[in-house]
Amino acid sequence: MEIQDNQHDQASSETESVRSGRVGFSGPLSGQSSGPPSGPLLGGNKKSSKKSARFKNEEYVEITLDVRDDSVSVQNIKGGDLETSILASRLERQRPSSLGSQLSFRLRQVSHELRRITSTSSKRFNKDDRSKSGAARALKGLQFMSKNVGNEGWSEIDKRFDQLSVNGALPKSSFGQCIGMKDSKDFANELFDALARRRGITSDSITRAELREFWEQIADQSFDARLQTFFDMVDKNADGRITEDEVKEIITLSASANKLSKIQERADEYAALIMEELDPDNLGYVELYNLELLLLQAPGPNPSTNLTTNSRILSQLLSQKLVPTKEPNPIKRCFRGIEYFIEDNWKRIWVVLLWLAICAGLFTWKFIQYKDRAVFEVMGYCVTAAKGAAETLKFNMAIILFPVCRNTITWLRSRTKLGYVVPFDDNINFHKVVAFGIALGVGVHALAHLTCDFPRLLHATDEEYEPMKKFFGEERPDNYWWFVKGTEGWTGVVMVVLMAIAFILAQPWFRRNRLNLPKSLKRLTGFNAFWYSHHLFVIVYGLFIVHGYYLYLTKKWYKKTTWMYLAVPVILYACERLIRACRSGYKSVRILKVAVYPGNVLALHMSKPQGFKYTSGQYIFVNCSAVSAFQWHPFSITSAPGDEYLSVYIRTLGDWTSQLKTVFSKACQPSNENQSGLLRADMMKGENKPKLPKLLVDGPYGAPAQDYKKYDVVLLVGLGIGATPLISIVKDVLNNIKQCQALEDGLEGESNNGEKGNAKKPFATRRAYFYWVTREQGSFEWFRGVMNEVTENDKDGVIELHNYCTSVYEEGDARSALIAMLQSLHHAKNGVDIVSGTRVKTHFARPNWRNVFKRVAVNHSNQRIGVFYCGAPTLTGELKRLSQDFSRKTSTKFDFHKENF
After folding, report:
1. 749: alpha, beta or left, given left = phi > 0 and alpha = psi -120 to 50?
2. SS3 string of 735-787?
3. What is the Cα–Cα distance from 692 to 681, expressed in whole angstroms?
4. In the predicted structure, residue 363 carries a pLDDT above the cut 90
5. Alpha helices by DSSP H, 535-684
6. Cα separations (Å) of 366 from 288, 537, 561, 594?
7. Residue ranges of the alpha helices (H) in 372-405?
8. Can you tell me the distance from the alpha carbon of 238 to that of 611, in angstroms, rounded to the nearest whole number?
9. Short-list 505, 507, 542, 549, CA closest to 525
């Protein structure tokens, strides 16, 4: 049987013989035909004859095969190189199907591969080219094996094959899970198809041996092998060429694997961009060397991240110094740990120790006082413990109000130097500590009375009761009900119940709805339940004063000290609430712009109330009567002090924020192409202005982020919506830089016009590093305008912006390789990043925070850096540890500040 396949090149042909004998195959290594070149393959009967087509002035490869009934072996190869030999060796691999058809397929495949090699041999990069900086970086890309894919080794994949195989074969649908690529099923399916095409496998399942071949190719770490595998994924018809439709398809696939919906929507545009770059002659296709060219000529790292020679040396020294070393002596290790703990927490330590000392002193004073009284003979140590706990309760019920006096705290941290010794950032944490002290005091006081004092009084003899008559009356109480029905009794019981409700609903499990409760009970939890239950304190304080006045064992008014403890704190807190009520009443704002962004984010731009002054990093309380007339919720200010408007960005995470978004969305319209966001309502434009709900604001209030002005260099880290206060800081730093430049140039305010006196005093910050990490591409729309404004105005590179999208696989992963290529190409041509839509180039996956701190330490030795973090608590520990580690082991000191989020 003889099969002949004539293609575009009339000078070449391809035939095969499956009888036992020897087969010769030869073909040109370079040619002008559009199709894959082929050479004559002549087979005889038993006695085979070998003929080779010769092409004048052309290099050729001759492959001689030994074809027998059940096998094919390569006997001889003339011409070509090592890669040609590898290609030829694939002809020996066969499936148990028809040998003739299989060999025909293998011959065509090798013919195609030979053409790929020769067509790019004169065009591909040589080893010297690949040693260049940009190429060396690109060679690390296109990794099909990563920390989650294939790194376990064949043994683990083999085990999963046993678990996932059906009748001894692995279905295509389970291939991704088997190799560890279960999160990218579509990408894994395309990889399966590419690997199967190369081997002539047409079924949707593979054997264990075929899986081993697949894995070996995936695990091949040579750049050429990885490049070829990726090219095969794009080249669906295995013709050695990639068309625009195939490029579009792989862009859509890569965007889907990385959850980049915006890129999927513009796949046509990006495919045309790649073809325009790689196919300048409009041939309608690109080849392997074009893809290699795009990869190896990709731009290197951002110049701002490059280090000088001295910096590199310092960086190496830092790396050596930061290597974790364990102190062998346990005593020294313990003392060092204590030293570090005190160094990091001395502010908190002295405040807590002072609080504990006062509580212990009050308890001891009352304990000794009642031990010397007659009631001790009847009630014993029970009454001394109860009265000691009661005294600490009075003190704690007084000071628990101070941490929530926000106006007072804001004034103290902004106008005084107390912030150097008092940790104002921990006001809510201290509020929680005092609440725990109150719970402990209530428990000791109530248990001592109910389980000890009252039973001993009820069972006292007439002689023992005699000194008690002036306190409890001539007739001895005969049961517990006597104590409960009295004013002292029922007020205490009601207070305990109300305190228990507020304390329980304030726990994170209930306040953040983390418990899976039935719907009927779920309504009783959440932020609303926390907010309303906490306002039961008004009743509790009223009952507390009454309870402290009607005492069994104290009859003189000046010894009833409860009101004395509470007078100043309650008056201060009442004034705070009165100021808030009055201020918010006339600080009704006018809505200027509303926008609803992807990720359930509502942006509100409003007019500034008259006389409203704030600092970047501070926050305000917002009230919307259309949602709730009583609830006020805090939100960080996103606008800078120099802006003519006030703005907040609100992410819908609970009942109140969801209702607020719904109310404002009703007045919005879909945005046009030139506007960001999904829905918008701009009250500054157009005649048909929608009717919007009324908003009240209260503030501003102090927050940790406002201390950025104390530092020459700041490192700002925001996770998701946590970037809101940091965006305000970035804008303020930019405005400050502009003002400093104007002052240096003698343009500080045109004193002749009287504007010099209004100029804001510049602050210390001269350098800012901003890292924003988000998992959704749509999130970058929130602050796109700010990012572009910084890049346009920051000519000296004072503010360094870094965006990270964690939904995209890390740089170097094959699943994000095309996105990275497209990103570099689009940014170089248009100056816009395809992921964020801004001028700031987006990084993939999560930052290496140790490298971030290391680079800042290298750039700013012998300086103090302010690290400000706002976001989920998951990253707090790592950033805090790195700040401490670098502060102890380098000359750069990092002060960590966490925003209450």
Report:
1. left
2. HHHHHHHHHHCCCCCCHHHCCHHHCCCCCCCCEEEEEEEECCHHHHHCCHHHH
3. 9
4. yes
5. 537-549, 562-586, 655-665
6. 88, 26, 12, 59
7. 375-379, 381-399
8. 71
9. 505
Residue from 298, 375, 304 nearest 138 by CA: 298
Report the b/e string of 316-332 with b at 16+ CB within 10 A: eebeeebeeeeeeeeee
First-to-last CA distance in the chain?
Answer: 78
CA 355 distance to own-chain centroid: 37
Residue 277 structure tokens: 């770059």
Q: β-strand 601-607 against 842-844: which pairing, if any?
A: unpaired
* Cβ contact 318:890 at 8 Å: yes
CA gyration radius, the chain: 38
Is 90 exceeded by the pLDDT of residue 744?
Answer: no
Residue type (1 letter), 70? D
Q: Determine phi and psi for 865, rounding to 5 degrees.
A: -105, 135
- Residues 336 and 338: their CA atoms lie apart, in Å, by 5
Sheet-wide strand order for 21-28: 21-28, 60-67, 72-78
CB distance 16 to 111 below 8 Å: no
Q: Please, which pLDDT band fits residue 359 given cuts at 50, 70 and 90?
A: very high
The SS3 of residue 872 is coil
Task: Write the single-letter amino acid at 446.
Answer: A
CA distance 800 to 766: 12
SS3 call for 91: helix
Q: How confident is the model at residue 14 (pLDDT cuts 50, 70, 90)?
A: very low
Which of 755, 770, 706, 760 has its CA nearest to residue 737?
Answer: 760
Distance CA 514, CA 530 (A): 14
What is the three-state SS of 1-24?
CEEEEECCCCCCEEEEECCCEEEE
Most confidently modeled of 513-527, 542-556, 585-599, 767-781? Answer: 767-781
> Is residue 671 within 8 Å of 680, Cβ to Cβ?
yes
Instruction: Give Dmax (Cα) for the chain.
Output: 133
Cis peptide before 40 (omega within 30 of 0): no
Cα(852)–Cα(834) distance, integer angstroms: 24
Give the confidence band of 9 by pLDDT, cuts at 50, 70, 90.
very low
183-230 pLDDT, tens digit each: 778 888 888 988 888 888 888 899 988 888 888 888 877 777 888 888
Beta strands 767-774; 799-805: pairing state? parallel
**Tokens at 250, concatenated:** 């792989």
Distance CA 424, CA 408 (A): 11
* HEC-encoded secondary structure of 416-444: CCHHHCCCHHHHHHHHHHHHHHHHHHHHH
With beta carbons less than 8 A apart as the criterion, state whether 767 and 860 touch: yes
In tens, the pLDDT along 626-638 reads: 888 888 888 999 9
Chain segment 114-146, per-residue pLDDT in tens: 555 554 444 554 544 555 545 555 556 667 766
Tokens standing for 447?
Answer: 């248990």
pLDDT at 19: 37
Q: Which has the higher per-residue pLDDT, 518 or 859?
A: 859
Whether 39 contacts 53, CB under 8 Å: yes
Query: Kind and range of the H or E element at 893?
Result: strand 893-898
* Cβ proximity of 617 and 729 under 8 Å: yes
Per the structure block, which two tokens stand in for 654?
A: 């609970």
Q: How far apart are CA 160 and CA 170, in angstroms?
A: 10
DSSP labels for 175-222? Answer: HHHHHT-TT-HHHHHHHHHHHHHHHT--SSEE-HHHHHHHHHHHH---
Q: Are strands 695-701 and 13-17 parallel, antiparallel or unpaired?
A: unpaired
Whether 60 has a pLDDT exceeding 80, the answer reads no
Q: Whose structure tokens read 């409860």?
A: 562
